[in-house]
Amino acid sequence: MNGNIMLIGFMGAGKTTVSKELSKITGRNELDMDAYIVEKEGMSISDMFEKYGEEYFRAKETQSLIEIMEKNDLIVSCGGGVVVKDENVEHMKNGGVIVLLTATPETILERVKNSTDRPILNGNMNIEFITNLMNKRKERYLSVADVIVATDNKSVSEICDEIMDKISKK
Ligand code: S3P
User: Fold this and answer.
1) Cα angle for residues 22, 28, 32 (degrees, 5° grid)
2) Among 34, 75, 90, 107, which one is least packed by beta carbons within 10 Å?
3) In the chain, how many domains are there?
4) Domain residue limits at 116
5) What's the whole-model pTM score?
């Protein structure tokens, strides 16, 4: 398969963890978009939101995505909000296969509740907020994805097997 394998989905869907494991299985290098932005900007995502606002972060996210899509054969763990912008989706569609990881709001909350590095969830760490934001983004995630894998109650290795199996049948 040519191009990158891009993991998308809501915060806490397991993109970072799964991409690290997929990298081991496939021998492809792994690139975490959020980490790439943090390194480039020399600032945490929370600080970017706090000092310059979300729009600033979204502009950096698009810029980074364009750079990353010039690379090939990577496993890319994308930020949860990257698919919201049409422009970003166009870049991604040309960059390889897009894999959506899903999880219920309950699973998401369980996975993210002790973390403070997602500014969108700070002060919003509850099922209602997660459900509302997920519902707003759901159609977009589904329409962008080439492959969809539910992650609830599955091990990382089960999720990776399912991803590779579904990609091979594409
Ligand atoms: C965001 C998701 C985060 C990060 C930023 C915004 C979002 O990435 O890009 O905090 O809008 O869903 P993860 O999905 O890797 O947590």
Assistant:
1) 70
2) 90
3) 1
4) 4-168
5) 0.97
